């Protein structure tokens, strides 16, 4: 799956494209009940006494939305309303709370693959689907791969991760792994929640099947996350790519249930990080940034946007906040004055590597690296909003992301670019820009032709002044107004003065 599959499609393509259903299971009525957890969904709706429920389906599962809707409607009672959400505002893996609020929903049911980002407004019932997987074969393949491994990075602590569609068999896979592996190896696994309640308390996690894993293991997973061997159950996906990026120091093996094969994934990690490092270097050369709003459902997206604005202003960069829905190259090409974009999206949709985009697109963590004074990167990678905000608060007092208030700073000092191999003069916005121009007035006249000079802190104004075509001139007071003329009358299929109607 291409990393840009979610965002790079145009609106016309979304209407005209065909959905590939080769991987979608053909389900009988009984299998439909089991696959979509109809009984559990009804139980959760009744338990929460929800009256208006939004059902969010991805494109590939829309064909099952009608039978699922009818089965739920027949069991929840006439006093409850169901609404099917078919077209999500951003990625289908995110809970579209904004669309749900349009119908005044008090709960949501999210179907299909989910990024499991923390929501902020509504309780969510997750129905991942239940794709088939053989726990015995999965455990045997992992054990065989670990036995044949000669890597020095292989650890005694194993971290089991699963694609959400296979999470219903996590306990069976975990049991088979512990049986087949030596007692010296420890297997950690954090169960995936199937229901999230929006309360003032921490997120409540419930499971349809009691987990046999040690309840304390999830508490220690963060401790071992960078000193373990990862076992991933699922095919190649954005989830796997993000897992490799955020655990670059770990050995990782993946098991693909449809093909029943296991392979070493760690070899891809260095190439992924090298490509991202190249994007970071391009961000270092940028002076005007566009903050792209790529989600409205992740809980911390508003504090993160405020954090990015503050950080860019501190580094004397200009920023614009833009909400364009699903991204595509044509949309972003309209903002030529912006030299680099920062995408605020869920972890699975944050990495945009398409070469079709005119400007580079970085993640919030990559932006922090680009703005640091020292050009160093350990390879550590963070996609979680809360972690990015927490780490910045630790470094904020040290001003490691720029020190615009230094008295000894030379504003004309050139900056060396690793991308072009040349020195460049960085543009500065804010207080230093006013010092350079010597005038902080909002608008001043450039000449007698009513051409307006640029704002002291306006990157768009400077870009406009550099263009050869700036739009039609108003020429107020120099051109006489035109005489009004009677236009056509009638309807479009045949106007009154159209000879074809006579």
From TrEMBL:
Residue ranges of coiled coil: none
Gene Ontology, cellular component aspect: cytoplasm
BP-aspect Gene Ontology terms: protein histidyl modification to diphthamide
Major location category of this protein: cytoplasm
Domain of life, source organism: Eukaryota
Cofactor needs: [4Fe-4S] cluster
InterPro entries for the chain: DHP2, DPH1/DPH2, DPH1/DPH2_1, DPH1/DPH2_3
Associated pathway: Protein modification; peptidyl-diphthamide biosynthesis
Any matching Pfam family: Diphthamide_syn
GO molecular function list: 2-(3-amino-3-carboxypropyl)histidine synthase activity; iron-sulfur cluster binding; metal ion binding
Keywords assigned: Cytoplasm, Iron, Iron-sulfur, Metal-binding
Subcellular location as annotated: Cytoplasm
General function of this protein: Required for the first step of diphthamide biosynthesis, a post-translational modification of histidine which occurs in elongation factor 2. DPH1 and DPH2 transfer a 3-amino-3-carboxypropyl (ACP) group from S-adenosyl-L-methionine (SAM) to a histidine residue, the reaction is assisted by a reduction system comprising DPH3 and a NADH-dependent reductase. Facilitates the reduction of the catalytic iron-sulfur cluster found in the DPH1 subunit. Required for the first step of diphthamide biosynthesis, a post-translational modification of histidine which occurs in elongation factor 2. DPH1 and DPH2 transfer a 3-amino-3-carboxypropyl (ACP) group from S-adenosyl-L-methionine (SAM) to a histidine residue, the reaction is assisted by a reduction system comprising DPH3 and a NADH-dependent reductase, predominantly CBR1. Facilitates the reduction of the catalytic iron-sulfur cluster found in the DPH1 subunit.
NCBIfam families per record: diphth2_R, DPH2
Similarity field: Belongs to the DPH1/DPH2 family. DPH2 subfamily.
Subunit note: Component of the 2-(3-amino-3-carboxypropyl)histidine synthase complex composed of DPH1, DPH2, DPH3 and a NADH-dependent reductase, predominantly CBR1.
Protein name: 2-(3-amino-3-carboxypropyl)histidine synthase subunit 2
């Amino acid at each position: 799956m291409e990393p840009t599959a979610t965002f790079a499609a145009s609106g016309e393509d979304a209407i005209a494209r065909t959905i590939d259903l080769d991987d979608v299971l053909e389900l009988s009525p009984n299998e439909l009940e089991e696959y979509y957890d109809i009984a559990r969904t009804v139980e959760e709706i009744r338990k929460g006494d929800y009256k208006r429920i939004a059902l969010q389906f991805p494109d590939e599962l829309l064909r099952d939305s009608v039978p699922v809707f009818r089965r739920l409607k027949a069991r929840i009672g006439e006093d409850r309303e169901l609404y099917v959400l078919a077209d999500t505002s951003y990625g289908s893996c995110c809970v579209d709370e904004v669309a749900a609020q349009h119908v005044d929903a008090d709960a949501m049911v999210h179907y299909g693959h989910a990024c499991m980002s923390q929501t902020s407004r509504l309780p969510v019932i997750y129905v991942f689907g239940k794709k088939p997987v053989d726990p015995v074969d999965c455990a045997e393949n992992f054990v065989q791969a670990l036995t044949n491994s000669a890597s020095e990075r292989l650890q005694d602590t194993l971290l089991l991760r699963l694609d959400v569609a296979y999470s219903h068999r996590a306990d069976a896979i975990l049991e088979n792994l512990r049986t087949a592996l030596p007692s010296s190896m420890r297997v950690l696994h954090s169960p995936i929640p199937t229901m999230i309640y929006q309360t003032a308390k921490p997120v409540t996690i419930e499971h349809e099947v009691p987990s046999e894993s040690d309840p304390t293991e999830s508490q220690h997973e963060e401790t071992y996350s960078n000193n373990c061997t990862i076992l991933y159950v699922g095919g190649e996906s954005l989830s796997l790519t993000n897992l490799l990026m955020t655990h670059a120091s770990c050995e990782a093996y993946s098991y693909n249930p449809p093909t029943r094969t296991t392979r070493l994934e760690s070899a891809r990690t260095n190439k992924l990080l090298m490509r991202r490092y190249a994007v970071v270097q391009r961000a270092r050369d940028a002076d005007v940034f566009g903050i792209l709003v790529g989600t409205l459902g992740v809980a911390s997206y508003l504090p993160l946007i405020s954090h990015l604005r503050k950080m860019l202003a501190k580094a004397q960069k200009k920023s614009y906040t833009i909400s364009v829905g699903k991204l595509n190259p044509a949309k972003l090409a309209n903002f030529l004055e912006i030299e680099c974009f920062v995408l605020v999206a869920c972890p699975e949709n944050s990495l945009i590597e398409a070469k079709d985009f005119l400007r580079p697109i970085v993640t919030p963590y990559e932006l922090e690296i680009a703005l640091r004074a020292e050009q160093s990167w350990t390879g550590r990678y963070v996609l979680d909003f809360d972690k990015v905000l927490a780490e910045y608060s630790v470094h904020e007092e040290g001003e490691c992301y720029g020190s615009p208030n230094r008295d000894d700073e030379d504003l004309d000092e050139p900056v060396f670019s690793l991308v072009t191999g040349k020195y460049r003069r960085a543009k500065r916005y804010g207080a230093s820009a006013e010092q350079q121009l010597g005038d902080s007035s909002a608008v001043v006249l450039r000449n007698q032709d009513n051409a307006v000079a640029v704002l002291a802190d306006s990157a768009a104004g400077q870009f406009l002044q550099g263009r050869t075509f700036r739009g039609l001139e108003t020429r107020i007071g120099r051109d006489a107004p035109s005489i009004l003329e009677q236009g056509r009358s009638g309807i479009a299929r045949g106007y009154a003065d159209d000879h074809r109607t006579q």
